[in-house]
Amino acid sequence: MQLRKEMGRWTLHLSAGLWLLAVLLTCSCAQDNPCYAVRAGTCSDCLQAWKDCAYCPEETFKGPRCDLYENIIAHGCSAAAAITAEGSMTIERKQRIDMKLQQSQVSPQQVRMSLLPGEEREVDVEVFAPTKGPLDLYILMDFSNSMVDDLNNLKRMGTQLANLVKDLSDDYTIGFGKFVDKVVEPQTDMRPSKLKEPWPNSDPPFAFQNVIKLTSDASFFDSELQKEKISGNLDAPEGGFDAILQAAVCGDQIGWRGNSTHLLVFSTESSFHYEADGINVLSGILARNDEGCHLDAEGKYTKDTQQDYPSIPTLVRLLGKHNIIPIFAVTDHSYTYYEKLRDYFPIAEIGRLQEDSSNILTLMRAAVESIRGKMSIRAEDKPKAFVTNFLDTRGRVVQYGAFDFKPGAIGNFKMKLSAQQMVGGKPVCQQELPGKQGLIRVKPTTFNAAVNVDATVLCPTCECEKFAIPAAAKCHGNGDLVCGRCHCHPGWLGNLCNCSASSAAQDTSRCLGPGMTDPCSGRGDCLECGTCVCYKPDQFEGEYCQYDRTDCKRYGGFLCNDRGSCIRGRCACNEGWMGDACECPNSNATCLDSKGGICNGRGECVCGLCKCPESDIALTSTCGPNFEAQVGICEGTRACVQCQAWKTGENKDKKECDKCPFKIVWVDELKEEKDVLRSCSFRDEEDDCTYHYHVEDWKPDSKVKEMQFQVLKKKDCPPASLLWLLPLLLFLLLLLALLLLCCWKYCACCKTCFQSCLALLPCCKGGRMVGFKEDEYLLRQSLLTSDHLDTPMVRTGPPKGTDVVRWKVTDNVHRSPNHPQALTKPNPKETIQFPISLRLNRLFTENLSRPETRDAEQLRHEVADNLNEVYKQIPGAQKVQKTSFRKQKNAGKRQDFAIVDTVLSAPRSSYPDIVKLTQKNVQSGNLNDLKVVPGYYTVATDREAAGAIEFQEGVGSVDVHVPLFAKEEDDDKKQLLVEATDVPLGIAEIGKRFVNITIIKEHATGIFSFLQPAYTYSRGDGVAHIPISKEILEEGSSQVTYRTRDITAKDKKDYVAVEGDLTFGPEETQKIVPVRLLELSEKDGLLTDKQVRQFAIDLSNPRQGAKLGRYPRTTVTIADEPDPSVMMFKKGSHNFSTSEAPYTIPVVRTRNQDIPATVKWRTKKAQRFELSDILKFSPGETEKNIVIDPRAHPGPIQPETIQLELFDPSINATVGERKTTLVNVADGPHYKPLEMEQVQNKSSMKGGRLLSPTNLKAKATGPRNIRLNWDAGSGNPAGYKVKYWIYGDPEKDAKVLDVKTPQAELTGLYPYCDYEMRVCSYNALGDGSDTDMVTCQTLEDAPGEPGRLAFNVISPTVTQVSWGEPAETNGNITAYEVIYTPIDDEQKAVGPAKKVKIDNPKKRMLLIENLQRAQTYQYKVRAMNSIGWGPFKDATINLASQPTRPMSIPIIPDVPIVDAEAGDEYDGYLMYSNEVLRSPTGSKTPSVSGDDYATNGKWEQNFLFPGGSATRNLSSSSSPMSTMGSNYKGAGGSFVTDTNTTYMSAGGSRRTDMIRGGMHSSEVIMRKRSENRSYMDENIRDSIVMGDVSGNFSDIDARLSPGVPDTPSRLVFSALGPTALKVSWQEPRCDRELQGYCVLYQLLNGGKMNTINVTNPGENSVIIQDLLPNQSYLFKVKAKSQEGWGPEREGVITIESAVDPNSPLSPMPGSPFTLSTPSAPGPLVFTALSPDSLQLSWEKPRKPNGDILGYVVTCEQLHGGGDVRSFEVNGDTAETSLTVPNLTENIPYKFKVQARTTQGFGPEREGIITIESQDGSSLSQFNSQSMLSREVFQMPTEVSTRMNVSHTMMDPFFSDGAMMTTQHTETSGMVTRQVTKEVVQRSVMGGATVTKKMFYES
198 and which of 228, 232, 1219, 1665 could share a cystine (Cβ 3.0–4.6 Å)? Predict the structure, then answer.
């Protein structure tokens, strides 16, 4: 019974808790209250819990004694009794900043704060930094041997350095220190000779030495610096951190001053050692750095061998503590390391140092100036209990280093100090004293002066606790009364200590209140003596937990209106609020009207709102007349003004006129319109006179506190002299009316004319009418050029005044109620587009019609922002889009104003609300802040529309912009009804209310289409010309819209996007769309693995009867062709004498010299002969000669000038700048060149064209520098122009350097790059002649970081890492280094780092074994050239997150393999593989870390076969042609290993009787990922391709009827998820136009056949969802033409994934998935036993057809000859083997393995093998479709063998001879029959075991 009761209680608790959770989600008051935690504590505990906690000591108080102050007051505690505490802040010293004093200053200087837990205070702080304040500059330089040139330069610049510091500060000191590394292995060579002199003429190694103490003596600094010599160490990283720490903490030895800025310049070209980065501290050799000063008398660091390097956080803390700002001056080699290091410091600078430190002065000046412009505020020595924030003057928190205080000016900021409530999980008042009290120094990082804040956490105690009443009467003598609460003696319980701790105390009935059935209301536990402890004291309260703090009254959905607290079931309102839900403010501020009164004197203020009396006119919220809410202030006041002034109009009855809320004022003259609120004019219908009045708002200084209506006393009436004409006119009109009545009975048409005439009479219909001009419009859809029709509406009668007419249009009014389309009601919740048009209150400009202009863009944003703000109150409305601007003709006086058209997406049901909201806002003239013209709008859906137009004064006709709702599903003849509904503004009445629009739909007159679905253009073409064709069905003009769209190509990067409309004339059938193609950027041009760039062009919106055809979209591929060869003459002129015949003229070729190229040449202006010929350059040739022999031509050899020209280059070549040359032939052996004579003559005639400089020489002085020298030559040049460009680039792209002396220094060049150069002189007359071109190559530089890292997890303990070659090799890469380290989740090392050095740069891959399972590793790779190591490329991989299911991806063999458990020396664990390993098949893609996909080393292997294929990723080196060989010394001899793997495929019929019929081979294609774009999607995880590559099924083609499509040539299955599949196919060959496709699929074991019809022949893929996991499906695809259906392409596919054990058809969320097909036996594994025998083994079929009884193996020669041999293997085992003897060397054999089952024979697995004799020669050639592998074992027998292995699989489930083939080439050097030792290696993969056996001779 008790158990049942307890269960019932907990059930109630659970349900109450669930209800409470729902309430708390919207409850604003159920927040954490820190006071709740100490409700049971003492008064002191309460005050120490939180700054806002208060305690009530009253004895009669029944609420919670510890709570927020406002809560205990609300519970009934008197304010006088409540105990609270308050913190304090005192500024004890505040001395103003003296700007004349040139030193850093702060104000105030001393502040004292006592803060309660959770309290915070702000202090305004001023800081001042002098323009040239005191400066201490300490230079710390790397003295390793690689810095020798840097030291020499620094010595030469010693004086300049001192001058620089003088320039930076008037009060300076400068010092110098040096460092190398710890004098211990492995950092230093410990051999005695190297310890004495590590390098020639060097000092012994050391860690750090203070050389020159900070001094102001510049000459002393310079002289001491000259004495220094370089030193050296072993490893690349240096011990600079030791030096920085000693320089920081040894203040006296270094000489830092107290009131100066401390700068430390750290100069190095290497990275750094830091704490625990090596093995020393981990193995316990070195202790942790003690952060102390350890310098001896000579300034040397003495504890370098006894303690570890400091950590980075230690350096940051100590440099900040000692006010030292680091400046890192580092070279390119280590720049990236220090760039990351800089981010750890509040303020630090980094500069890129030249290789020889020649720019260190410039770097230091820039760094110091940058530091002076920054300022970082920090709080030093801050106790744990406090948190500081620094704010700018606007109160925004500012990050470190972001204060922009100018030197020489006072800067201001705010310091906010907060005391925490909890520290380390304990209340702050329970902390030790140092943790909650201390002196905080707040200062800028560069200052020594600081604001000293004496901060203390205030932990108050209550005085009442000192005056306890022992054995108080209130406590029944059983307890002490302390601060109003009983503290019971032992043995007594209860709030009043009146309950003894006996069994009676357990009675729960004491916890029942009146009317309660559950103790403590079911919301708490009943303790002894009837005490209820509520489950959630922040929600439930009361003696019996009967009150719920979330159950008070709400207002607007908020508990107590969010203006009070829920206390004991009632709202306790905050100050200033009242009411049951605190909904009413106490003040009348919200009821004040514009005149300062209450509710305009018409109503009373009730609960903060004006309660207005009933009125016939609309009133504002303050009971004022709301004329704007009607139709405008003029229309709203017109009747009252007219009745009061003239006793006429609608309200001329006195009772109605007395109801007017205002009185008029007569005036003789009206003010100007600009001085009043509104100017109004109306015609009085009773006397046809016009009266005028102004509405003037009241002004604050006016005595009249309401609007004034000033009426002009005089009306404007027509001239009286014409009144006599009225009787005559009336008589004539009556006579005309009689005549018309007589004619009416004879002519029906006169009736309409008569009614129109009556409408023109002033006495009829009010005198003014509006209506449509026509009754009906008949339109042909094929001739429509717009989706709107401008329908004119006219106005008759007096033209004065304004009329606004509302209209609406309804689509398909011709349909009867029983029409099928009319019976189909649209979904009201469907989101549709609402086109909206508004007229803006601004003129239309031409710029607004062009969307790309700035005016259009700005206005578009303004419109969107304001409309989104207005329409956000529509539920479900989205942001507006497709905003454009236009102007409308025939719009009256407003036709020059801009109309905006936009589209709002919202639910269909919101149409009426959108119309009302638009109408309301337009009438007010504003949509939020957007100014619009009242009287015009349009809101439309896809079947109806509404809007308004405006007739201004004097306007008689306006167009209505009617939407036509043209849709494909429209009837052949449809009608729209346009109706003028009403005139909300104006006096006109509606005449012709309706107009019908009929649209006749005709058959298409033309079909637009691209000629083909894809085009390919080269970037060199410049422009892609894309034709668009029109098939003419009927003559006539038509239009279509075209637009480009990005795929992988990007607009403005690869091409220039275009869009527009094409208009075809009646007989035009084709037009061209030109698309400009852009050149590759420099970055993309350097990438070797370029992505295929594609963009699409779409056709849309065919008009005038046209439609889209077969190819509405085409894809344009931009091919990056290789740069053409450039051929040109070697020199611009050649000089010969007549005795030097024949003449040889060289032609040179640059760029792309590995291709054949041709160019033609010919003579021009030759006197005796005209010659021409062709020059043919073979691959690799760079120079050819043109030979002219004048002796072969008639006539004597004589002086002449011959001009030669190059022309007509081959398609892959171009002619360079020197396309012509002059051949000058002079008489005799001594001559003056004709060119020189011409120059001299020209110089003499024109007075000064200069000759070319001579003896031009170029020399590389660095990786980015070339020095040029030349002789000036004759003349008096004003200067020289040096032209230089990269070798192979056109000379026109050369950069020009202007110099004044005959020498130049080229800087900023690319490292290890060839440059070409020329020089010319110039003077006032222009440039002189150029010198001959010279070439020079810059020096090498350190390489950049390697390409993106890729991982392939082979097993839980084996990982393969590969990387790409650096994008910037800057020389020849000679080696790579790989470092891998186990790390934790915080990227911290949890084990030693292992290094691997790979000396062969072609091997960019590493296999690491014996890794720790489920461990995260960080990998770092860097490259080395002759200069040294480059920066690291790093990535991480978590082995725990990698899939465990195997995936058979062959790994390229002969890669380095390392053992993670081996030693740490390079040669200790570096080895190479000698077999093909297999990686897990569960990895769909390798784990990749990097920034992009343009990487070296990422390849994709595609196994293509007719019926099915598998696609997998393969990580390899960047070039498939790279050879990876290795030599391995082993016991008994050495062997060389290489591997060649070739993948092949074949085909076979699905039917058993066709398996033997024909074998169809398909080639294997291995290509980069970027070359396989057409079959890859970004979200596709796995794909299998089924189809032919070459497609040679001639026997099938012969059986097809003409016009019937062939079989789709390829199926592509792409897994989108464990139950989703994308099926794609290639378009089959067909003589006729395709009409569509059919896709059929069903479960392989039977079931419903599902059919998908694809009616668009341009679509070649479908996506199928809701497939079953791990179930095989049969898919069929066939094509259709008008001749019928073609044959089917079949394929069987399975999506394998992990499933829920409880639901086998439900995949596990997030589990990996892959594609597979039914498999044959295999793969076949061959092991050579001798030159004439081998062992064959295979795996059991994965899905055999029945029980396996055995296998049949056949063997025959591949090319015929010999007998077919058969073998039988009985039994069913997981792996079976067979020894085959009597084979012949160098003969390829074909083996077939077929399983024999209880159901018959299964599919065959085929393999091809050749045992070849080898002599150990080198590796044979690669080709583009195979990877060669060979293992040659050098055994004592001097005989070796080569074995090529091929595996082939045939499967009956693949149609048309589909076959899956893989071929491996494995070799072994086993040439012995006497086997004494056998080594067996196994790799287990998903249940299959591959055994490799190698035999060694004893």
Answer: 232
